């Protein structure tokens, strides 16, 4: 739809709504936006019988209730990147929807599905086993909790950086509905088209006091934000469908079942990548000859059972989860108008998990204990079209395509117990311990030139066991099968002291682990066989990462809750840091997963809010991190030696400074409703993206704003909003490529910037403005 028609439709609809104001029914005294945001936010992070106020838990957590999420216009987890200190919730960019999350400097810079996430994502209590398909469209949420620091005791699945706990809305006891239509897009003339989203939910009792139900639907149609200079087409197009249902059955006064199921289908363009040998780093210009695609289907289901018991006045909870994710992608990785490096993937993940736990109270003791089981299978295939690397003897009639991938079976067993002991009513000691055992079995096929090869058994019938390399006299093996297991104990000890009902301090020590694993993307076989294997003592995989974390913090607030200030200081020691070391090579990008170094990360973070008046609220956050290597055991600088130059490099994904501030102003218009103004500014420092520091992401200044008219029509509101209003250029990653930039009269392009070679730098959306209509009861 042309922009002028879009604006006319928006104005016309707003006029119709205002015309009907006189017909609005009178409602009770409204609750202001400030009061809604100030409502007590409860969190499930401690997994106790009753959810707790975020201000009372001894954990660094930022929690968002449904009203706050609406105020921040949260549509994906990435939307929260600019609201929380020391947190980066980015999409990796290579395959849309693949998380590249980092908290307090711990994260994964990879789309390889066989490396475990450092930041765990849990939806309705179910852990997502891979980063793929995580940064998806969100709707109908009850809350999101962002936990900073290792959470391996109660969550237990590789949460060395932190955890994101997402709680979708439950079926309600009363009949409710909500519908929303959102239209947004670029206002800059040289960019794409309209992004439309429609969503609706209906919820209520099916059998009074016995059975509640809920249905939700979501549809997004994005015409593409960017303009491809190669052909003038819009790029970044997407279509997404989500269907969600829920049932809550109160079987008895003690026994409750909550079942949820969701199916999503997404069809999107491939990565919108800029090669910074061709275009200025501070523009949205890009030119690619392969628009690519990303197709994915996800089935997700959970069943939560709660049974109240007299034993300790407690509750037994069981959470059974299932997920199946199936995707195919194609991308222009050279990010140029030439066919230098195009890549496609196919990926299938299927997981099942079960957590059985008990939570109860015995005098001065709060006990939480349980058992955990998780199993997932991964099947991954990748191809690379790299005609520019074709060896001279190879006939042009034979395609020079790289194929390979792997399969993995991954099982986890766990048992945990946590005790909070009230030494006095105000002094609480915490002692916890978790045992985990992980097993991984893999079949890996090297990604290298081959014809009609099978990733399942590694055979290449057309050209023999060594594929196309056989024609060149190569005798490398085709791959390997292997297995390994890791077991460990995760302790936690801490103290919490309440100075009064509104002020507490806490401190704790905990340990976290991220299990070892295998690389599905072995592209430089000679390096792997001759350098990587000797460096790992002959082990085909990489070892687990170990984290020791220390934290002290405070949470303070006024008696009426209108002023809050929270702060924490932390120290994290990382041993055997797992890193994906990226280098340019004949296979395009060589990505070796290794235990590269030991490191120390220290930092501070603060969050606060102040309701200056009944209708004006200020909020702010700030984070500072200092990170350095203690011992480097692998060449991460790329100069073929391990020396002080490696130790002096910046740790990737660690912004030294993040800070932000915002406000909410609620203007009561009497019979005309209310006008709510929200604005937020967030700054994130420049960060290194690759271990070698050749790839980096520039600093970000993010400004978002929202103006909402709550009409006197009960439940009807209209919002105008803008995201990234300063039009900042941001990317998902900055990976170096082996392809030189363009020459003009023998002179390098003026846009040739550090890193020295070409780059694959997937762009994020710039300035966006939009309008939203919501009706609810």
Strands, helices and their partners?
Blueprint: H1 3-19, H2 33-38, E1 42-43, E2 52-53, E3 61-65, H3 66-71, E4 87-91, E5 99-103, E6 106-107, E7 119-123, E8 126-127, E9 141-148, E10 162-168, E11 176-185, E12 195-207, E13 211-222, E14 226-227, E15 234-235, E16 238-250, E17 255-268, E18 273-274, E19 293-309, E20 314-332, E21 342-362, E22 365-385, E23 401-422, E24 427-449, E25 479-500, E26 503-514, H4 525-535, E27 545-557, E28 563-585, E29 588-613, E30 616-632, H5 644-647, E31 657-668, E32 674-684, E33 687-688, E34 696-697, E35 700-710, E36 716-723, E37 735-737, E38 743-744, E39 747-748, E40 758-762, E41 768-776
Describe the structure.
The chain is mainly beta. It has a single domain, classed as Beta Barrel (Maltoporin, Chain A), CATH 2.40.170.20. The chain contains 5 helices and 41 strands. It has a 22-stranded antiparallel beta barrel. Strands 3-9-10-7-8 form a 5-stranded mixed beta sheet.
């Amino acid at each position: 739809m042309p922009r002028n028609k879009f604006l006319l439709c928006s104005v016309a609809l707003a006029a119709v709504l205002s015309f009907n104001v006189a017909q609005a029914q009178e409602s009770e005294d409204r609750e202001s936006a400030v009061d809604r945001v100030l409502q007590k936010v409860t969190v499930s992070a401690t997994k106790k019988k009753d959810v707790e106020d975020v201000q009372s838990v001894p954990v660094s957590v930022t929690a968002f209730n449904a009203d706050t999420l609406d105020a921040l216009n949260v549509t994906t987890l990435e939307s929260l990147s600019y609201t929380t200190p020391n947190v980066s919730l980015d999409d990796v960019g290579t395959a849309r929807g693949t998380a590249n999350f980092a908290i307090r400097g711990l994260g994964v810079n990879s789309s390889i599905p066989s490396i475990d996430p450092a930041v765990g994502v849990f939806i309705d209590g179910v852990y997502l086993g891979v980063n793929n398909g995580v940064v998806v469209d969100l709707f109908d949420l009850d809350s999101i909790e962002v936990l900073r620091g290792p959470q391996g005791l109660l969550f237990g699945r590789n949460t060395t950086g932190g955890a994101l706990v997402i709680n979708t809305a439950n079926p309600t006891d009363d009949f409710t509905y909500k519908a929303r239509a959102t239209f947004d897009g670029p206002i800059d003339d040289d960019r794409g088209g309209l992004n439309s989203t429609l969503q609706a939910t209906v919820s209520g009792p099916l059998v009074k006091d016995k059975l509640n139900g809920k249905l939700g639907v979501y549809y997004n149609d994005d015409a593409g934000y960017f303009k491809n200079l190669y052909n003038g087409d819009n790029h970044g197009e997407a279509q997404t469908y989500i269907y969600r249902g829920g049932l809550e059955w109160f079987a008895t006064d003690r026994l409750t079942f909550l079942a949820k199921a969701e199916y999503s289908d997404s069809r999107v363009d491939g990565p919108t990548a800029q090669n910074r040998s061709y275009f200025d780093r501070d523009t949205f210009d890009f030119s690619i000859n392969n628009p690519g695609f990303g197709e994915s289907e996800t089935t997700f289901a959970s069943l939560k059972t709660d049974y109240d018991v007299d034993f300790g006045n407690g509750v037994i909870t069981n959470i059974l989860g299932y997920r199946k994710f199936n995707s195919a992608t194609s991308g222009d990785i050279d990010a140029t108008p030439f066919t230098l490096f195009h890549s496609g993937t196919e990926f299938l993940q299927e997981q099942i998990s079960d957590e059985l736990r008990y939570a109860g109270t015995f005098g001065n003791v709060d006990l939480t204990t349980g058992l955990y089981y998780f199993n997932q299978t991964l099947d991954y295939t990748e191809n690379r079209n790299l005609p520019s690397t074709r060896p001279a003897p190879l006939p042009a009639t034979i395609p020079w395509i790289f194929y390979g991938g792997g399969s993995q079976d991954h099982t986890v067993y766990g048992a945990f117990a946590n005790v909070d002991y009230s030494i006095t009513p105000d002094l609480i000691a915490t002692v916890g311990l978790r045992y985990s055992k992980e097993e991984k079995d893999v079949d890996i096929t090297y990604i290298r030139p081959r014809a009609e090869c099978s990733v399942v058994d590694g055979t290449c019938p057309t050209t023999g066991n060594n594929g196309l390399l056989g024609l060149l006299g190569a005798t490398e093996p085709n791959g390997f099968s292997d297995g390994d297991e890791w077991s460990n104990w995760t302790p936690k000890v801490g103290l919490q002291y309440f100075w009064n009902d509104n002020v507490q301090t806490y401190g704790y020590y905990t340990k976290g682990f991220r299990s070892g694993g295998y690389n599905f993307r072995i592209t430089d076989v000679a390096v792997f066989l001759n350098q990587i294997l000797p460096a790992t003592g002959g082990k085909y995989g990489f070892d687990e990462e170990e984290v020791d974390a220390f934290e002290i913090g405070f949470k303070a607030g006024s008696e009426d809750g209108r002023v809050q200030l929270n702060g924490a200081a932390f120290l994290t020691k990382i041993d055997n840091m797992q890193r994906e070391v990226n280098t340019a090579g004949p296979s395009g990008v060589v990505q070796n997963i290794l235990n590269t170094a030991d490191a120390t990360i220290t930092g501070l973070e603060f969050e606060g809010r102040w309701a200056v008046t009944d209708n004006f609220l200020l909020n702010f956050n700030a984070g500072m991190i200092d990170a350095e290597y203690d011992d480097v055991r692998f060449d991460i600088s790329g100069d073929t030696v391990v020396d002080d130059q490696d130790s002096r490099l910046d740790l990737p994904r660690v912004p030294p400074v993040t800070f932000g501030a915002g406000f909410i102003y609620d203007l009561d218009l009497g019979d005309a409703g209310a006008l709510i103004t929200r604005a937020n500014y967030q700054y994130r420092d420049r960060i290194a993206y690759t271990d070698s520091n050749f790839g980096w992401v520039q600093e970000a200044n993010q400004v978002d704003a929202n103006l909402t008219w709550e009409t006197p029509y009960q439940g009807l509101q209209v919002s105008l909003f803008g995201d990234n209003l300063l039009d900042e250029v941001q990317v998902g990653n900055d990976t170096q490529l082996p392809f030189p930039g363009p020459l003009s009269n023998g002179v390098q392009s003026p846009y040739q910037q550090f890193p020295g070679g070409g780059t694959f730098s997937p762009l994020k959306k710039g300035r966006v403005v939009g309008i939203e209509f919501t009706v609810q009861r």
